[in-house]
Specification:
Blueprint: H1 10-29, H2 40-51, H3 62-74, H4 77-100, H5 104-112, H6 119-122, H7 125-138, H8 143-154, H9 161-172, H10 176-204, H11 209-218, H12 234-253, H13 259-277, H14 285-292, H15 295-305, H16 312-335
């Protein structure tokens, strides 16, 4: 069943999507090297060291490290940052085209206006690329290719071990209802035992100890130009809960049966539940992004697959505007 009123309404949407795609690539990819973009200065130093012949150990995020080394052999740092932007944005375009076909522009815009999209394209660059590659992998029809790409994302940035683990858990047991209750249970657990779980994950060494400490302990984000609040982040939880509510509404109330949507929703719930557990940690928003990059898809997917409402094209536009407004307001809260 068509979700939009007429096929002709798709043409301006697709045209806008292509214009928006080119605009994001140029605006983000050709930005100046500046302290305003946080870790961009560090990436620049690392790139220049490679350019000048200093070696790299290739033992952490090895795929990204080899990519940086390759770029240092063939071009300058500006080409490197533009290539990073291409690797960040184009997989999201390919994902949207594959999953949503003629409605791809709406999903693509939702991904672009998501909270932290900009910061992970300009600051947490390798993390952003890894999440985009992960989504691209999830969209592949060939199971072996999908698994290869999903695992590859973890070697671009090791923090992807959380959504990758969620991917394999859901592959074995795809039941959004169970993960919905699990997510709910994590809220009181975090309120009562958040400190215990934070220390537990540190001691387990899920990723390298220095990197876990960066995320869960006392990471210095002064370079981002903001001083984030700490403690139980009810504002972030509310943002995450939007996806949980939308998933609950369509899967349980509307009985929306779609295997891929059940997978992406379940992965979102698992990854976000992990963040809820450690929500009190300093700068836990970095763990939150390991689920938030899927949030735009979780929200918009049912609207683009089945017609549930009259004038659904207008409702889709309203959802996009409301999502952007919520993101904008959260940005204000973040830096206030």
């Amino acid at each position: 069943m068509s979700t939009l009123e007429t096929k002709s309404s798709l043409r301006p949407g697709s045209a806008f999507g292509f214009v928006f795609l080119v605009y994001v690539l140029l605006f983000m990819g050709l930005r100046p090297i500046s302290y305003r973009f946080g870790d961009m200065l560090i990436y620049n130093i690392q790139f220049q060291n490679l350019k000048n012949g200093f070696g790299m150990t290739f033992k952490k995020d090895v795929v990204f490290e080899y990519f940086m080394y390759f770029m240092s052999r063939i071009g300058d740092v500006y080409l490197f940052f533009f290539a990073c932007c291409v690797l960040y944005v184009l997989p999201l375009y390919a994902f949207s085209k594959k999953i949503f076909q003629e409605y791809w522009a709406f999903a693509f815009v939702m991904l672009m206006i998501s909270f932290s999209f900009w910061s992970y394209g300009t600051n947490g660059i390798r993390n952003g690329i890894a999440t985009s590659i992960f989504l691209y992998g999830c969209s592949r029809s060939n199971r072996f290719l999908a698994i290869f790409i999903v695992i590859l994302s973890m070697y671009i940035h090791k923090s992807l071990i959380i959504p990758v683990a969620a991917y394999f858990i859901v592959m074995m047991y795809n039941n959004p209802k169970a993960y919905f209750y699990f997510w709910l249970a994590c809220i009181p657990l975090s309120l009562l035992l958040g400190g215990f779980f934070t220390n537990l994950f540190l001691s387990l060494g899920i990723v390298e100890q220095d990197r876990v400490t960066v995320y869960l302990d006392d990471f210095n984000q002064a370079s981002e130009g903001v001083k984030l609040k700490v403690g139980f982040r009810w504002d972030f939880l509310l943002y995450s809960a939007v996806g949980v509510f939308v998933g609950w509404y369509f899967v349980f109330k509307k009985k929306f049966e779609d295997k891929f949507y059940h997978r992406i929703l379940s992965m979102y719930l698992i990854a976000n539940a992990f963040w809820v557990i450690v929500i009190k940690a300093n700068y836990s928003n970095r763990f939150a992004y390991l689920s938030w990059f899927m949030l735009g898809v979780v929200i918009i997917y049912p609207f683009l697959k089945v017609k549930y409402f009259d004038n659904q094209n207008r409702i889709i536009a309203a959802v996009c505007i409301a999502y952007f407004t919520f993101t904008y307001l959260l940005e204000i809260v973040l830096i206030s």
